[in-house]
Amino acid sequence: MPVQVWMPQLGESVTEGTITKWLKAVGERVEEFEPLVEVNTDKVDTEIPSPASGIVLEILVPEGTVVKTGAALAVISGGEEILEPGPSSGQAVQELPSAEILPIEHAPALGPTPRSDRELGFISPVVRKIASEHQVDLYQVTGSGTGNRITKQDILSYIESRPAEPGTSAELPAPHPAAADHLTAAARQISPAVPAAVLPLTPVRRLIAEHMVTSKHTSPHVTTIMEADLGRVIVHRQANKETFNQDGVNLTFTAYFVSVVCLALKAFPLVNSSWSEGGIVLHRSIHIGMAASMGEEGLIVPVIKNAETYSLLGLARIINDLASRARAHKLQPDEVKGGTFTITNHGTSGSLFATPIINQPQCAILGVGAIQKRPVVISLPEHGDTIAIRSMVYLGLTFDHRILDGAIADAFLGKIIEALQNWS
What we know:
Elements (H helix, E strand, L loop, with lengths): L2 E4 L9 E7 L6 E2 L4 E7 L2 E6 L4 E6 L6 E3 L3 E5 L12 H6 L3 H4 L23 H10 L17 H10 L15 H4 L4 H4 L14 H16 L2 E9 L1 H16 L6 H15 L5 E2 L6 E2 L5 E3 L1 E2 L5 E2 L2 E2 L7 H16 L13 E4 L19 E5 L3 E9 L3 E17 L5 H16 L3
Parallel strand pairs: 12-16, 16-17
Antiparallel strand pairs: 1-8, 2-4, 2-7, 3-6, 4-5, 6-8, 9-19, 10-11, 12-15, 13-14, 17-19, 18-19
Helix pairs in contact: 3-4, 9-10, 9-11
């Protein structure tokens, strides 16, 4: 009997996801527990396995569609239905307009280009969209997928390699002989402008864009910047790196910043809060988000839950684990949710200071610049003011001005500076 594939619950607080990639096409065989479809939730990609072995009879949801937990995704032949929908599945399926998810259209005719006799077969919505935007006749594209199916990479490669079509450049009529002398050589050599390239938006890039725009529209952003002397932190790190390495832990500067942020949040609990129309929500636990790079795909923010309960060694171990799994796209959906304060280390690329955007619904975000040796004036009781070379870092706190005023924000940031400069 046919088996329906349902959108599973991918995390405790995850209610929906975006279909990013079907790993099997209609007509292909799939084995039980073999990855069938890739889903993105809050920048985390998860492969959903097939609940049974059989042939993919129907794909109900095209790539790029946002679906709720319990929604029907596909139909597979054979086997018994072993993956039941959640209690909200009926409602979720009804919310997917059948006119948008059921048709499988063939590529439209795009000009008089001669076509071969081959059948195109299934064309995904993503491929159809790219073909329409770039006026590509899909009969001219060689497919590399199963059964010669045209994949997204096939059409992008074709667009990149195809020669310019004749007649695309506007040809000017020959000027009247009497006016020919007035045309300069440069004017006769003018070429038409090269059209701009359009990069398709990935689900992660689209999600980042939505979060950034929402944050700027939600919170009045203000940034205050101070600098800290990291001399004592550097001495402590050098003295303890080898001991931490023996435990399999890389002691990074991030562990120190998370530690002092927890200390400052305890002293100023208003910074560990969120805005609501009913009042300011003070969070009892400290969950620190740390921005981690995924390369060209952007940033993801895994969360250190109850960060205030860990020692420096414990923080370093958790940071190592989350950062490595973020780069490998191995984070779980729940691991990027629930943060109450965020730290972003933009200094890894050489940036001295920045004005980061608040990670909603949090109240503030700390930006850490590059650690840089430079001359500074220091005051010594015995010698007065003197110039010395110190390892300095700029720290920028961007905060929600609905919740925090400048005085509290400066006091909070000052507490961080004090803890770093007096580390022992």
